[in-house]
Amino acid sequence: MNRRLSGLAPVLVCAGALSACSGGSAVTPSTARNAVTQPQNQSGAPAVTESIVSRSLSSSTTSAPHIVWTHIQKRPIASSTATVRRSAIVNSPFNLTYFGGALVKKTVSNPIYVNCASTPAACWGSVTRGSPGTFLARLAASNFIHILDQYEGTTANNRYTLGTSANLTISGLPHVVQLSSTTQVSIAAIVHAVASAFGTGYGHVYHVFLPKGTDTCMGPAAPNVCYSPDNPANFIFCAYHGSADFADIGHVLFSVEPYQGVVPGAPSGCADTLIQAPHGTVDIMASTLSHETFEAISDPDGSSWFNRLFLIEIGDECVGFHDDDNFGGEFFDVQEEYSNAKNGCVNGV
Questions:
Q1: CA-CA distances (angstroms) from residue 288 to 135, 185, 281?
Q2: Cys staple from 109: which of 61, 136, 217, 258, with CB 3.0 to 4.6 Å?
Q3: Does 316 map to a domain?
Q4: The domain containing residue 265 runs over which residues?
Q5: Interval 122-178: pLDDT, tens
């Protein structure tokens, strides 16, 4: 969706424990509809061993961050449809343009599971299809991830891998978790706590998974811009990514994925999205996670690759175009991503 979201400025100067900055090339939506995404460098399911470190976090924050978010994945409208699928025009208006920002040629994904009960699957919507971490590892070994080659200037395999995951236990987790806060635990504090231990810079992307029934908002600058299915008036987005500059630990890339399925007190979370979900909520979670992963890599600081005409990113172009794809032997129905090389939304190279 529009990177400025209804005219709101993308820079949030907050008091909390994190500061973020984020920082994309050119093509039109979709060419390969039902192609199967197979692993690039191996057959069958990748051997995934997810290393999870348990941590705890107090409800207070300790530092004042400056946070920049570059993209909010807007809550889809059931009647909406994508405007384009494919264009034969080389310089299509749907192409991404590079604005000189950071290129993430290699990084590791670090999932952060917040109060996910007894297993990360509790934040995933499935107990039989691994965890967000195992999906990220499968995504990293697929042809699908190589859509990013044209934007990053490299074709190397195994450059976006699964790092260490954190199972974070927070007592007194508020129902609404703000991006930053001086009075309660925040997204900023969560990211800061884990990045302090695992590492910072463009070599890490932290994906925060919130438990079912937890809302999150972009306050204090935009307190009514939220994932809040139980409060429809403020229910604006499904997920987002951004980056932060902490005074003590430096630059951090992150994304936030609330539970995307039906939640307590509301008829749906983001389960009313346009994508099909033949495998259940896990498809919506996987689609959202791949969307934010592609954008965190291609436009980490809001200054790399995005569409200059519509001010949207690689995943925004292709919401509504999806495929039931094979990721290392397991099928997930996920949205496609925009390829300048193919002038369209694709699910592989």
A1: 12, 24, 11
A2: 136
A3: yes
A4: 11-346
A5: 899 998 999 999 999 999 999 999 999 999 999 999 999 999 999 999 998 999 999
